[in-house]
Amino acid sequence: MSRAASALRARHAVRRISSSSASSPEAWDVPFHRLQKQRGQHLLTNPRVLDDIVRRAAIRPGDAVLEVGPGTGNLTARLLASPATRVAAVEIDPRMASAVTARAAALGLAHKLTVTTGDAMEVEFPEFDVCVSNIPYAISSPLAAKLLFGGYRFRTATLVVQREFARRLVGAPGHGERNHLATNARLVADVTLLMDVSKAEFVPVPGVDSSLVEIRMKEDRPAEVQPGIGLDEWLEFTRVCFGQHQLQRRRQNKKRRKEEKTLGTIFKREEMAMELFRLSRRAEERDGNGAGTSGLDAPHHGDDDVGDGKEVEDGCFSKEEVVAFKERIAGALQSARLNNERPSRLSNDDLLRLLQLFIKRGVRFH
């Protein structure tokens, strides 16, 4: 199909969308049993809000658009009618994938749409210029992190997320609503709150209001946060501080999340200390640094919960080595005087200072 013919179909689709929905909510009563709240299936139905989202996304001719969680296609229809060349949608629910595919066909724009059925956190996204999505609440944080730090090269992501998460994402460093994602996002992107969206605009009505945010990627991703501290090292360090390391997330899945822990509590956990020990040994080998994280030259002050000194996953190391390594962790926290502090109450400078002390003592995170 020629570009001119495709553009003409898109203009006709815009007219149909505008005339059919200017005064009434988008249709959502698609032919399957019911929407699944556990999957975050809250469909945005206000046509004016949907139009405003696409307008603010500022899609350019020739853009490739990514949409996560298209649902029945209320937003997708407008993305297809935009100047975008193609729209790639990722949908975990096969019923929704069929519904949005059928809707694109009914609009005569099926040639612009590709639907991948799968979990957005596991699917590898195709190349895209902009992401425009009404994100399922349950994956707001991990999906934003995937977009920001997953190596994708794109211009902007315009996302509908729960209002509380939006406030945290744009919160100033040291603010009570700040989290690790906000801390790291500023290194690679500018995040802007565009507008609030009432929960009354969704079907079924969720328990909280939403907001529209824009993530605009910076042209250059820094290799280092500051001299001597690589970006990847910093990202992994803050994931640990804010409870987003895979070990911590597994624990959270097993039991209800409690109040934020202090840095001392976070780093004294046996499994976390051993994970950092392994990472530090790998970093030592990778960097060719003989000064060591093995800790063989450090004093031994007792058992300190290190088990029986048997083989550990990535090789053989002694009980004394592990004890010495844990002392290095404790020494860094003590020197920084941050042992009893909670990460969300600290500034970037505080966290950078602690990471410098860890690295100086051979404790590595990447």
Number of strands: 11
Output the strand order for the largest sheet.
Answer: 4-3-2-5-6-9-7
| N-end to C-end Cα span | 48 Å
Order of helices and strands: HEHEHEHEEHEHHEEEEEHHHHHH
Main sheet? 7 strands, mixed
How many DSSP H or I helices?
A: 13
Rough shape? Answer: elongated
Arithmetic mean pLDDT: 82
Radius of gyration: 24 Å
Q: What is the beta-strand fraction?
A: 5-15%
Oligomer: single chain
**Low-confidence regions:** 18-23, 28-33, 252-257, 290-314
Explain this structure.
With 366 residues, the protein is an alpha/beta fold. Helices cover 42% and strands 15% of the residues. The protein has 13 helices and 11 strands. The chain has helices spanning 3-21, 47-57, 74-80, 94-106, 140-149, 163-170, 180-188, 231-241, 246-254, 263-268, 270-287, 319-336, 348-360, and strands at 43-44, 64-68, 86-91, 113-117, 130-134, 156-162, 189-197, 202-203, 210-217, 224-226, 229-230. The strands form 3 sheets. Strands 4-3-2-5-6-9-7 form a 7-stranded mixed sheet, with helices on both faces. α4 (94-106) links the parallel β3 (86-91) and β4. α7 (180-188) runs antiparallel to α8 (231-241). It starts with a helix and ends in a 6-residue tail after the last helix.
